[in-house]
Amino acid sequence: MANTPSYAQPGAAAAAFRVAYGAMPARPAALAGATMGTTWSARMALPAGRTEASARQAIQAALDEVVAQMSTWEADSDITRYNQAGPGWQVLPAAFFHVLRHALMLAEDCGGAYDPTVGPLVNAWGFGPHQRAYEPPSPAAIEAARLRCGWRRVRLDEATQSAHQAGGTYLDLSSIAKGYGVDRAAMALDALGITQYLVEVGGELRARGKRPDGQPWRVAIEVPDASGDHALALPLDGRSIATSGDYRRHAGSGDGRYAHTIDPRTGRPVRNPVASVTVLHPGCMQADALATALTVLGETEGPGYARRHDIAALFILRGDDAYRVVATPAFQALANLP
Fold this sequence. Notes:
Strand content: 25-35%
Order of helices and strands: EEEHHEHHHEEHEEEEEEEEEEHEEH
CATH class of the domain at 75-165: Mainly Alpha
CATH superfamily of the domain at 75-165: ApbE-like superfamily
CATH topology of the domain at 75-165: T-fold
Largest sheet: 8 strands, antiparallel
Helix content: 25-40%
Strand order of the largest sheet: 2-3-7-8-11-16-17-18
Structural class: alpha+beta
Radius of gyration: 19 Å
Distance between the termini: 46 Å
Mean pLDDT: 86
Shape: globular
Number of strands: 18
Number of helices: 8
């Protein structure tokens, strides 16, 4: 299962950060694997009685569970069964219900700029599990997809851990499930008594403690032009970091180029000066979803929303000749920026 595509386009470059590891003292471990159509990696200090094999197995099992529940790329996943179900209530696994509940809360809070029912539009624009030649869909196809979208179509029943399928609703949790996978991998390491680690899935990261040499885990945020240059480096301890940007996954070229992030309010790919948004948060699930929501909200509404909600966010905006960086007060405080 780990080698089958899940959330990302097969072969898509996903890493948005560089990590400076430095020299690692005794009992370090560096692990890696495949999941969600991308890769995962983990650096850690193994305590006595723990092996690389046990850590690797725990991480892979946690990620495989997320794929089995929330991947639209898997024909037998729980989300696929929900998407194919007729009208009525569908009992969901606990993790799936937890992630969907958070996604719906965020959708309501940001006025639909984030929407877990955006799947029909994602598919119409060619970014879903059934890939096709990239070409813009017709206005009729966009409108048909929009009729199936809308976060208010999904109702939850806390008592039975169920979600109502209105008929034709198609959930897509790709903008939150990868971050949740990072959280689950971190929880798996916590359960093994591993307290110093940096775990990453497709460029989203979560850290606990420090490197075994006592130095902080440091993450470099890339300039969103695929150059490999970075805008700044910051320590990551007890927090997660996630980035949403349009410079790695897109379709078309020139004036016809469009990003993979869809604005649920218009049914079309986002077109605004936001090149990337990076969010720092204790939970990677939250950071992942917020980065997408802030990207869709744009260069004015996005920073405003982040400031009102005390979100640590860094916006990199395109200018006529150069990029402009906007950091919220919460981000400035955590990153020790002037």
